[in-house]
Amino acid sequence: MSTVGIRTRPRARARRRVPAALLLPALIGLAFLTLPLVGLLIRAPWTDMPARLAEPEVLAALRLSLVTATAATALSLVLGVPIAWLLARSDFPGRRVVRALITVPLVLPPVVGGVALLLVFGRNGIVGSWLDETFGITIPFTSAAVVLAMTFVSMPFLIVSVEGALRGANEGYEEAAATLGADRWTVFWRVTLPMIAPGVAAGAVLCWARALGEFGATITFAGNFPGRTQTMPLAVYLALQSDLEAAIVLSLILLTVSVVVLASLRERWTAAP
Amino acid sequence: MNAGQQSEPDRRPGSEVRETDSGTPPGLDTHLVVERGEFRLDLRLRVAAGETVALLGPNGAGKSTALRALAGLESLSDGFVALDGRELDRVASRRGGEPGRAQWVPPERRRIGVVFQDYLLFPHLNALDNVAFGPRRQGLRRAAARARAAGWLDRVGLGDMGDRRPKQLSGGQAQRVALARALATNPALLLLDEPLAALDARTRLDTRAELHRHLTGHTGAAIVVTHDPVDALMLADRLVVIEDGRAVQEGDAESITARPRTDYVARLVGLNLYRGRAEGHRVALDGDLTLTVADPLDGPAFAAFAPSAVALFLKRPDGSPRNTWRATVSGIHRHGDNLRVQLEGPLRAAADVTPAAVAQLRLEPGQQVWAAVKASEIRAYPT
């Protein structure tokens, strides 16, 4: 395979002009994608940045965002990896339907997801009323609701990523483990999971980043209570109404986190064979 | 995690007593039937404990399918697998199938060790932990499992390689780790899928000799799947040749090399083979030709002779009781120190001649020659 690649690749690529019809839109697109970020950096109130970062509302929102996004990622791992395994390694009736259902949250507007969550987990919802009557637990407009909203929109990213890793992994290793006396759970835990670890990690990072930026489902299902359900994106939106500079600071923090995540993902991707 | 396994002390290696119900001898007894579309594998096989059998056959003959079916990685369409008197697999009787109740034991509880063709050493574990993987699953504690693994690595001569990852091992070393990993579970049946195919010629020679030593020391049954007759002859006590999913010939090295029964086997052992009808000293071949043979025989028969028994002449030889026929040279290529000449004509045959003879006869493709074989050089045996 590699020899073919070497043979077909020209020794030295001839320098040829890029057609203007491609170059011009490409440059405009590039500017469109980067200028807002540059604008953010230019308009940032760098001098009183430290003071603003230390404001209790900012810290509370940041802390809540990090904790809930991490919790949502953990929940997605616990529930999503088994789903990915079922999709990739077992053959059950309706598997196509399940895969289609899983991709729905990927394309569904998050606000709609939030409404749907509210209908199920709300006080009068199917699950919500039962939880309320049996345990006295109310989910909407709590931090738990934030985690659920984030999990709903971000778990599909993890599932898709892990399923891809599972399909790419050589099942021969799992057969070898079985002949050595490992039952299916041990095979998964001791062989499959360590081998697809890079894929799981990439999926978890994607999932975490998506959860961190989650806005629509959160504000619909969990509301916007500072310290309890007000995550960073919500705080940015709120700050924008009254204090532009605060919104810029909060945005910069989110931007920094995103860039760090992207960098760590790139490392993964370039390290992969 | 292995609580379930620990509660089965009989699975612990060493404590196993090779005793079987109804006095059946320990070892493998199986009838494998696997149907996959057009392909059908139908193989009856018995391998005694301590015996090594080679499944020899061309690519696509069903060797690997048989091996996977034995290991429980492929389901049977019909038949059964019994190991040391314990039934591992039985397909509920269909028309003409084997009688008995349906039974299926998953791979992890079969006590069948497999050395895979591409070894499949776990890339995330070092050599020691690869070998310790099986003993761990049998309920040994980490330290005990590692101790056993270290012992096996020592036995295959890799005692100092325990901390190497599979990627850091050479092909020959990886092969030995894979063997150690399979043997460390003390399997009642060891399966080896083309164990030497991935090695270069030099490594192959050393590894083959070492593998033979370990197979001799293995107390359970062993099956080696290979398409290389040399591997089969060197490693196994008995050969089963399969073509198109069926056993076409079975026997020890001597009987197979002396009396091939299919063109494939004849090619493997390097003999010219023909079918015909024998009447006394004469065997009438399917073509027009009749061969004179030394041993008298009657009925359907095979006639075989070595390429080195064929002599080539430009003019028809006379005198001694030879079989002679006119042939056309269709190809010449090196074969060891000699040259192998492919002959077409009433009898398609290979002849080994010295380079000097080729020069003297000025042999070249398309040339007409006379071929001759002494009656005493032709072996005839019933089909």
From TrEMBL, chain A:
Repeat recorded as keyword? no
Record family assignment = Belongs to the binding-protein-dependent transport system permease family. CysTW subfamily.
What PANTHER family has UniProt attached to this entry? SULFATE TRANSPORT SYSTEM PERMEASE PROTEIN, SULFATE TRANSPORT SYSTEM PERMEASE PROTEIN CYST
A GO cellular-component term linked to this record: plasma membrane
Q: How does it assemble?
A: The complex is composed of two ATP-binding proteins (CysA), two transmembrane proteins (CysT and CysW) and a solute-binding protein (CysP).
Q: Report the principal subcellular site.
A: membrane
Q: Which domain of life is it from?
A: Bacteria
Bilayer topology: Multi-pass membrane protein
Name of this chain's protein: Molybdenum transport system permease
> Which InterPro entries does the record associate with it?
MetI-like, MetI-like_sf, ModB_ABC, NifC_ABC_porter, Sulph_transpt2
Q: Which UniProt keywords apply?
A: Cell membrane, Membrane, Molybdenum, Sulfate transport, Transmembrane, Transmembrane helix, Transport
Q: Where in the cell is it found?
A: Cell membrane; Membrane
What are the residue boundaries of the ABC transmembrane type-1 domain, all occurrences included?
A: 62-263
Phylogenetic placement of the source organism: Bacteria, Bacillati, Actinomycetota, Actinomycetes, Glycomycetales
The protein's gene is named modB
Which function does this protein serve? Part of the binding-protein-dependent transport system for molybdenum; probably responsible for the translocation of the substrate across the membrane. Part of the ABC transporter complex CysAWTP (TC 3.A.1.6.1) involved in sulfate/thiosulfate import. Probably responsible for the translocation of the substrate across the membrane.
Instruction: Extract the signal peptide range.
Output: none
Membrane-spanning residues where? 21-42, 62-88, 100-121, 141-166, 187-211, 246-265
The molecular function GO annotations come to: ABC-type sulfate transporter activity; molybdate ion transmembrane transporter activity
